[in-house]
Amino acid sequence: MILLIILLLPLVTGLGILFLRNACTVRIVALTSTIVNLLLTFVVMGSSPAATFSVEWNNLMGISFSLGFDGISLLMLLLTNLLFPFIILAGFKREQNQISVLNFLILLTQAALIGVFLSQNAFLFYIFWELTLIPIYFILLLWGGENSRAVTLKFFIYTLAGSLFLLIGIIYIVQLTPGVHSTDFSVLNQLHIPAATQIWLFWVLFIAFAIKMPIFPFHTWQPNTYTMASTQGVMILGGVMTKMGIYGALRFLFPMVPQGVLYWQNIVLVMCLIGVVYASVIAFRQTNLKRLIAFSSMAHISLMAAALFIYNYYAAQGLLFQVLTHGLTVVALFYMVQLIQDKTKTLELPQMGGLKHAAPKMAILLLMILLVSVALPFTAGFIGEFLIIIGLAKQSIWVALFGGTTMILGAIYMLYAYQRIMLGDKNASLKNTTDLVRLDYWMLIPLIAILFILGIYPQPILNLVEVSANTMQNLLTSATGIVTAMPH
Amino acid sequence: MSALIFIAIFGIIVLYLGFANNKAILAPIAIAGLLITMALSIKDWGVGSKYFHDMVVIDNFSIAFNVSMLIITTLIFLFGVNYYKRMEHHVAEQYALMIFALTGAFLMTSYSNLIMLFLGIEILSIPLYILAGGKKTSYRSNEASFKYFLLGSFSTAFFLFGIALVYGASSTFYLPEIKTYISQFNGHLPPMLMVGLLFILIGVSFKVAVAPFHFWSPDVYEGSPTLVTAFMATVVKTAGFAAFYRLLGMGLLPLPAPLEKTLWVMIGLSLLVGNLAALKQSNFKRLLAYSAIVHTGFMLLAMLSQHDSAGSVLLYYTFVYSLATIPLFIIFIHMKRSAKGLEDLVIFRGLYKQKPWVAVFMTILLMSLAGLPPTSGFMAKYQVFTISISQGYIAISIFAIVMAIIGVYYYFYVLREAFTDTDTPNPILITKLNAVLIVVCGVAVVLLGLFTFTIPI
Predict the structure, then answer these.
(1) Which of B405, B410, B450 to mutate to test the interface with A (most CBs of A within 10 A)?
(2) What's the CA angle centered on B63, arms B365 and B42, to 5 degrees?
(3) Domain ranges (residues) in chain A
(4) Is the pLDDT of residue A488 over 80?
(5) How many domains are contained in chain B?
(6) Chain A residue with the nearest C-alpha to that of B372
(7) What residues of A are in contact with residue B373 (Cβ under 8 Å)?
């Protein structure tokens, strides 16, 4: 029942918000709702996994409305509910039109995301998966920057295209279930799909997740969308929605087509590694700060995707840990981008410089966030990426070598960007610039604190996902024997 | 049967009501008549009777489709209350002609004899030829009427010729007997029978606008008065598909391989041509015409997969498609009036600014047409794909999915216009009744998606 409350709370609050007139009240109500949801999430983390909720929905099509969780969904739930208070907070005290509608859409996205992560039924999963797109489409369209019309449509079509393939995949798999067809994950996971089918079915399912993450050749929607999006929009996109791809892959690919995964593993790995190097190099050449971070995010996600498809013990742990870290880092980074834009009135790196003199405290906090992002030891970024690199090295030293370039190149372009933004001579145009205000501290300090605490003491998160990570890995290991026997 | 007789007589009554010179009473009486017909239809549920030497079969299938069409026509008549307010003369004829067309539609859902199908198609079509030319002073409307009439007659000739050839070969008009006759050849049909069947298929395909027999539909949709376009896009489409399903799904399928291949090619063409042409449309009515061709492709896909529940899926698909289409036409007519008669997509600009709730409902309706969850349009497509994949048609399903993606583009293109501001805002006035219609249809589209119905037919 508590799962249902977590799912419905943002939705109900969101609908209620539509009737509020005062901008300040709207924001506070929305923030309270997300904080309550976060507290409820902690309650769920303390309860047993048996706390599920399930009702029949459509018997004829074998659809049930069932919510439940394992370690991985719990991690995703935690990520979503941890980030949304910050995402709402990022809108405080800003000039925005139609604040109640905006906050409604944000809360609707949250509800849909929670639905995705809690669904125990493939059909329900798909409904929520698509439902996330609708509010984010409007957030990007109506509150996006210049050129939002064309970019948003591309983003929408692109991601939807992937989802529709996923739909075909789901329908096909459901048809394979014995007796009265069922769409429950528990039933689908028991299927033993013939290896030859798995090999093509893998791509039908994979494309949806590859576009969402995004993995290398499917990434072209991402930089423009990130650049154009409003701060809150890009926080949702980069912080949580990219993780949907990883979650979906874990939910579908590994349990249902493990042999397909192994068969294509090397090709996908190469795609991921190309993504790592490609995105890092491009990020290095960017002059627009938001685009730079967009590409840096893609590089990190590509590394996570590589870990996803290697999926040995270390890679899995690192991946799931990095899911949380990356979400928090991205939200903090994009908030900083917003601040920098507010203060310098530009996002072009060559026009910046010397901000440190005007805003010294901001310079310190930005440095801390960047250090997490480039995976400095004792930060959460280090734990995740280090585990991932160990995992990659277990597979092949070359994979680890290419994967490791994210850390090296990341350090280069991030610190170079820092230098161009903060350091340098006093800038005359920044004369009237003020340092951080209290709201910014409320936003940044908790994020940075979490990232550093997790860097020193990561065990709670690692424990949370350990069991599920092992289960997934066993699926792959058991499939290995069959695949090696197969002719290539 | 009583429903069929009642509606035929009722049409004449409505026609003579025109002498009363009171426009206000027309729509309420017409709607009352439709509701009585609906009650009479439902009374026969589960009975399954045959009339006129078995030429007419009233079974659950036909009743379900008839009730669906009656509901949709009721919505269109409610739309008409406001639409015909400006029209001075001959309003009664408009309602009467639509009721006559509905009579033809009833025959098309309940025939088992090719002659009866022919009669149904003709009774449906002739009032439509007149309705399409409803705006006598409009060049476009006259063009639509004439084009529809010419091409309609042409296809009727094909259809009749087909019937004649099939009769010549099999010496029967009855579908079950024709099927038995066909099956004795084991797939190697004599040329006369083959050509006859092909011509029959062409004739019916023309009526439901399957590519490559779709060329009339964009012009006719564009030229006809908007209310008639709405009628054609919903009721006529439903009737055409019911007839198609009776002819193939409940009748002649499985057909010999060459004919089935032809039908598959027609599905592919409808999906492709409809989508590619829709991408380039700037006129909203033409856009909906092409998108209707695409939906035809999806419905044919359901039908040809020869699944037991195809009839039910078809009913659901046509019904929710109609439910989403009518309010879109209502919104369109209001935007058109505020834009002083323009029909381009840009007229939707500024809708969100002025009437945000209409824009929200428009989102729901377009999502339903595009097939996005949680609307009923998604459930309809989901069911179509489920039955086609379960019968093993995976390649064509993937092709259809790709086409559905293209569809999303132009539906959301329209939606994007609605959410874009305009420099020259015109006041948008939406009457109360039409507002209620938009809301009711929008809510129904979502509720039917959440609680999908399956009627055993």
Answers:
(1) B405
(2) 100
(3) 1-256, 263-479
(4) no
(5) 2
(6) A130
(7) 126-127, 130-131
The residue from B232, B255, B278 where one domain ends is: B255
CA–CA separation, B378 and A124 (whole Å) = 13
Residues A433/A359, Cβ–Cβ less than 8 Å:
yes
Same domain, B263 and B246: no
How close is the nearest chain B Cα to the Cα of A171, in Å?
6
Q: Of B389, B401, B409, which has the smallest distance from its Cβ to A164's Cβ?
A: B401
| Phi, psi for B224 (deg, rounded to 5) | -65, 155
Please judge whether A58 and B452 are an interchain contact, meaning their C-beta atoms are less than 8 angstroms apart: yes
Token pair of A468, please? 């599920």
Out of B255, B284, B312, a domain closes at B255
Residues B142 and B156 in one domain: yes
Q: Which residues pair with B113 in a beta bridge?
A: B174
Contact between A44 and A53 (Cβ < 8 Å): no
Which of B351, B352, B427, B413 has its CA nearest to residue A101?
Answer: B352
Tell me whether residues B419 and A142 touch, CB distance under 8 A.
yes
pLDDT tens profile B259-284: 888 999 999 999 999 999 998 888 99
Give the C-alpha separation, B434 to B26, whole Å: 17
Alpha-carbon span B6 to B97, nearest angstrom: 15
Same domain, B294 and B437: yes
pLDDT at B92 over 70: yes
Q: Which two tokens stand for residue A293?
A: 């971070």
> What residue type is assigned to position A410 of the chain?
G
Q: What is the rounded CA–CA span in Å between residue A239 and residue A328? A: 7
Q: Which domain holds residue B419?
A: 256-457
Q: Supply B163's token pair.
A: 């019937």
Q: How many residues does chain B have?
A: 457
- Closest to B55 measured CA to CA, from B120, B6, B2: B120
CB B79 within 8 A of CB B326: yes
Interval B415-429: pLDDT, tens: 888 888 887 778 888
B132 and B276 both lie in a single domain? no
Inter-chain contacts counted by CB atoms under 8 A, chains A and B: 71
Beta strand pairing status for B49-51 and B56-58?
Answer: antiparallel
Burial class (CB within 10 angstroms; exposed 0-12, middle 13-18, buried 19+) of A176? middle
Task: Name the residue among B114, B83, B123, B323 with its Cα closest to residue B225.
Answer: B83
Residues 6 or more apart from A222 whose CB is under 8 A from it? A214, A294, A298
B229 and B296 belong to one structural domain: no
Query: Which of chain B's residues have a Cβ under 8 Å away from the Cβ of A149?
Result: 416, 420
Alpha helices in B54-138 (DSSP H): 60-83, 91-109, 114-132
Residue B152 sits in the same domain as residue B127: yes
Backbone conformation region of residue B90, classed left if phi is above 0, alpha if psi is from -120 to 50, else beta: left
Instruction: Give the distance from residue A435's alpha carbon to the nearest chain B alpha carbon, in angstroms.
Output: 36
The reply to whether B156 and B144 lie within a common domain is: yes
User: Which chain B residues touch A127 with a CB distance below 8 Å?
Assistant: 373-374
Any residues with CB less than 8 A from the CB of B227 and at least 6 apart, and which?
A: B76, B79, B80, B83, B84, B94, B329, B333
Select from B228, B393, B234, B366 the least CA-distant residue to B310: B393
Looking at the structure, tell me whether residues B232 and B261 fall in a common domain.
no
Look at residue B283 and give its three-state secondary structure.
strand
- Spatial neighbors of A18 by CB under 8 A, at least 6 apart, are A100, A101, A104
Nearest C-alpha of chain B: how many angstroms from A164? Answer: 6
Q: What single-letter amino acid sits at B16?
A: Y
pLDDT band at B162 (very low <50, low <70, confident <90, very high): very high
Residues A41 and B255: their CA atoms lie apart, in Å, by 58
Give residue B441's pLDDT band: very low, low, confident or very high (50, 70, 90): very high
Q: How far is CA A457 from the centre of its chain?
A: 22
